[in-house]
Amino acid sequence: MFEGGLNIDYFILLLAILLLLGVITTKFSSRFGVPALVLFIGIGMLVGSDGLNFIYFDDPHLSQLVGVIALIIILFEGGLQTKWTSVKPVLPTSLSLATFGVFLTTAVVAVSVKLLLDVNWLEAFLFGSIVGSTDAAAVFSVLAGKNVKEKLSSTLEAESGSNDPMAVFLTITFIELLTKDSTSIIGLVFSFFWQMGMGAVFGYIFGKLTVYAINRIRLESSGLYPVFALSFAILTYGITMLAGASGLLAVYVAAVFMGNSHLTYRNSIVRFNEGFAWMMQILMFAILGLLVFPSELFHIDIMLKGLMISFVLIVIARPIGVFLSMPTSAFSINEKIFISWSGLRGAVPIVLATFPLIEGVENSQLLFNLVFFVVLTSALIQGSTIPWVAQKLKLTEKERPTSPHVLELVSMGKANAEIVEFFVPDHAKIIGQTLEEISLPKESIVSAMIRGDELITPTGRTEIHAHDILYIMAHKTKLKSVTDYLSKQNIEKN
């Protein structure tokens, strides 16, 4: 029992060290332009058996479990901060990239793998399926805080949030073709459309249910609302998966619906999940780093073949998938080039690479090591150069200011008023007007303004400028009227 206690304490100490190192490395990530996920993976590899030998870890089942839970939380957080007004115009393009684009990328990569490795065609297509989709965790992390054009960032985020069903479908299809004597192709195709369609339907239903429950149920503590919301996200995944649909897609759709609806304790929910998503990113990538053995990963043969496959994926396969899947879209050549370059690979391919390991597919360890190396290459080369590429292609815009303050009404759930935050874009009609000149509904008032880094206490004569952030206190019954009024004034809701 004493030794068991020591083991538990040792594990807790290591967990604390992993989290601390993960948080500290984010500082180096932003300073040196290296994606945080690479540093998190590096931490896992460092403390693993091939590094400092603190932890010996070789459990793909546990890695898959942690990876899926982390992806649920990361997709949920990303969806909460996705604006539907930005996603809606680019949704057809994003869905085309998430389906046809993934398939084309898979096919081109499979051809290169067949030529480079001593594997059969099914194994080659299995590898292509695993690396064919972009990764939401990587995309959300790298694009956060960057001044890339909103149309492009929304396209990439929507693509990465919705392309998991295609990647999972292709991966499972080729695993079944490799391990089973007979497989129904018609059944597999039906399964894909079921996963996509019902995943979206379940996401919408649970998103609506979650908003209703959060706004109607009065909890004793405001701190319970973020936990309540996260519980619904996990429930959404579980029930959707039991129905045979895409749980990850359902979580993302539900989160987008929630993020664009009136939600009690919105700031508390968003901030809590933002911090929790960072924690899960650290744990997920660190554990995935533990799962790989650097002595095998950085073998000269793996590195040479991995670099060649990465070259094909980044320079040939992804651009082919992008340009052929969006031929009639209203994107310029430079924008398509940027979308091609921003097809980041991350946790999803590594988690999918554990599937053939668990199923005992021949050459699965080789495929896993190569997938891992391709992910590292993609994150290092593409992830660290995205801001530079956007600038060179002239696809950046003026950075949108963020408030250094978080304003939220205390005991909002029990009071009859809420504070709503609005950002004033360049084209807003009320720019130049004073607060007494705008006609907000009764029982609503602008209680505070943020201009740059300055907190302004407004009066009736305070003039509204572009990029101001308005905090409007309104009676709960007037929230829709406030939103409708500001929409008519061409103000973009934050």
Automatic annotation (TrEMBL):
Superkingdom: Bacteria
Coiled-coil blocks: none
Record-annotated RCK C-terminal domain positions: 407-488
Signal sequence interval, chain numbering: none
Residues annotated as transmembrane: 6-24, 36-56, 62-80, 92-113, 125-144, 185-207, 227-255, 276-295, 307-326, 338-358, 370-390
Matches recorded under PROSITE patterns: RCK_C (PS51202)
Membrane topology of this protein: Multi-pass membrane protein
Subcellular compartments: Cell membrane
PANTHER family linked: K(+)_H(+) ANTIPORTER NHAP2, NA(+)/H(+) ANTIPORTER 1
Protein name in UniProt: Potassium/proton antiporter
Organism for this UniProt entry: Fictibacillus nanhaiensis
